[in-house]
Amino acid sequence: MRTVGKVERSLVEEISRKKGEPEWMRQLRLQSLELFEKMRDPVWIKGIDEVDLDKLVLYEDVEVRADKWEELPDEIRRFYEELNLPEMEKKFLAGLSTSFDSEIVYSRAKEMLEERGVIMLPMEEAVRRYPEMVRKYFGRVFPPATHKYAALHYALWSGGVFVYVPKNVKIEFPVEAFFLISSEMFAQFEHSLIVVDEGASIHFIEGCSSPQFRKFSFHDGVVEAYVHKNAHLKFTTVQNWSRDIINFNNKRAIVEENGSVEWVEGAFGSKASFVYPSVTLQKNARARVTNFSISHQGEWKESGSKVFHLGEGSRSTVISKTISTGDGVSVYRGLLRINKGAKHAFSAISCDSLLMDEESKTFTYPHNQIEEETARVSYEATTSFLTEEQMFYMNSRGLDEDAAKAMIALGFLSDVVAELPPEYSAVFRKVLEYDFRGSVG
Amino acid sequence: MLRVEDLHAWIEGKEIVKGVDLEVNKREIVVVTGPNGSGKSTLARTIMGDPKVEVKEGSIIFKGEDITDLPPEERFERGIFLTFQVPPEFEGVKIGEFLMKVKGREDLETLKELKEIFRRVGLKEEFLFRELHRGLSGGERKRLELAQALFLGKDMIILDEIDSGVDIESVEMMISILKDLKKRAGILYITHNPLTLKLLEDERIIRMKEGRVVENGR
């Protein structure tokens, strides 16, 4: 089943029927569709006007499901082999799910996860097998009414991963979900939900990739995370979409008392990207949000964070590092809200941007709403420029302009790249060097 | 090896180097001195290919090839190296990693060689993990530039006031290293440090004033 265009009730019902969903999920989809139809386009988003939903493939049923690589059809397996995923899974992942356009095609949790009661399943399967558990959280952390494209997501969602980590279970190795868009004029709406129960911890890695297309494709995913008391979640995204993807990535976590969450978001690819990991903090909960991105010629990348301090003693650190090159534009858009009663809440925000050329641009839109007198907040922003003298120095050491820019970009991002798992930071370095050599003006 | 012929170099519409002729051969140190603003540093940077400098007349010949219009990275490839008077800073670029990349060799033997050079110029091993020129004192920067001159093994080394703002022991150390370097390379040494001039009094000294060579000899 391949569906092009027209976001309408019949399509939503067909997706729900195809997935064999319970009634509450069907209703959630239909209510979200109504919201989508009523809500206005967000005016602050640039580039989204190019998305003509009527011309996109909104759903494609890939009738493949495997838990061994060799069971995948050659043409699908090749994509993953080129990305070295089977090798990485073997070496350091506790579980891996891979999505191909609308559906998960490969999913395998190592025995160690199962023995410890961790559930890691394609989202659809979790809806069918654990309906009550999923229902408790699904759409509650990042509600469909958040904005028009969140509503669209809930009407059309397909693919994604559900992870549940039981009480006091600490998983040392990361699990990964990998999302691939394989064709142009495609819209991907995967939904992932991670629930970390009391005292538990896990590291979830989200990878995104796509081959180069002639036309664009659209990504409108949602990640919801619920971190219970004393639990910890690290969520790392390595986004390397090709230069023709419009990326809308909606992420939010609720963190209960003494819990903590780390969002690490590295955005290298896509033509336009809008990612603001957000988090709601209860008493003594902690959050660390790290964003880094590179905007090449013709690209627009927005990143930032939304942090809501509800509980006393809650703490947040937000770090944003962006590089713009060519006429690329980087934007930091952040919201910090400290509610009355969140006594002694603390937040430190820093935004550093580097401009590589006279044409490149950066904008910063911090928005702080502090209602608690005992809260402490610090905000720092810096913009630096690649100077002629720096370029001459690098050139005089034998590095041409592209190699020099790659070296300077890697240096500028080195502290935040260190937050990636080593395997990914090595890939990141290669991608960055390749990008500067291949595409920038 | 390096020949500069009737060089006229301009920066922002102003002629800074006004018809300089110069020759530096292998196993030779040529000292260029003169007051501030006499065009010494511009001469050095023009030879390295600073894009801010416009060569309106004259030519730069290196190993028989006219390199006047080559970009700096190609001059480096052909064997020219310049130490910067005030090197710029690079956030997060680790010195050791940078130098190994520039050298094009990232093996243990090369690392060992680099450590030995650091020891020789008086830089602690931990500097390998520091950021390139960031947070370094003036003296440390000079030592790091000198270390690069030793490490990168180029045939023509141009040192732009590497001895300014450093103590007497450091100047003596630098000159002793230069005399070693002289055994395999040609050196163009820009300075107005009286101690250096004294220590190099046996070498050929060129005196510049207002963009011109006014004296050339021992």
Describe it.
The complex is a heterodimer of chains A (441) and B (218). Chain A is α/β, with parallel strands linked by helices. Chain A has a domain at 1-275. Chain A has helices spanning 9-18, 23-38, 74-82, 85-92, 111-115, 123-129, 131-137, 148-156, 388-396, 401-417, 422-438, and strands spanning 2-4, 57-60, 95-100, 103-109, 119-122, 161-165, 175-180, 187-188, 191-196, 201-209, 217-227, 232-240, 245-255, 260-267, 272-275, 278-281, 286-295, 300-309, 315-324, 329-338, 346-355, 361-370, 376-385. In chain A, the strands form three sheets. In chain A, strands 5, 6, 8, 9, 11, 13, 15, 16, 18, 20 and 22 form an eleven-stranded mixed β-sheet that branches. In chain A, strand 3 and strand 4 (103-109) form a beta hairpin. In chain A, helix 10 (401-417) packs antiparallel against helix 11 (422-438). The longest helix of chain A is centred in the C-terminal third of the chain and has 17 residues, at 401-417. The radius of gyration of chain A is 21 Å and the shape is globular. Chain B is an alpha/beta fold. Chain B has a single domain (2-217), classed as 3-Layer(aba) Sandwich (Rossmann fold), CATH 3.40.50.300. Chain B is built from seven helices and ten strands. In chain B, the strands form two sheets. Chain B has a six-stranded mixed β-sheet, sandwiched between helices. In chain B, a hairpin with a 2-residue loop joins strand 9 (204-209) and strand 10 (212-217). In chain B, helix 4 (108-121) crosses helix 5. The longest helix of chain B has 15 residues, at 138-152. The model of chain B has no long low-confidence stretch (mean pLDDT 94). Chain A binds chain B through residues 384, 387-390, 392-393, 395-400, 407-408, 410-415, and chain B through 45, 48-52, 71-73, 75-77, 81-82, 84, 87-88, 90-94, 98, 101-102, 131-132, 148, 152.
Order of helices and strands of chain B: EEEHEEHEHHHEHEHEE
Q: Got a strand count of chain A? A: 23
Number of helical regions of chain B:
7
Give the percentage of residues in beta strands of chain B: 25-35%
Percentage of residues in helical conformation of chain B:
25-40%
Q: Largest interface, counted with CB-CB under 8 A?
A: A-B, 21 and 29 residues
Radius of gyration of chain B, CA atoms, in whole angstroms = 17 Å
Straight-line N-to-C gap of chain B: 20 Å
Strand share of the residues of chain A? 35-45%
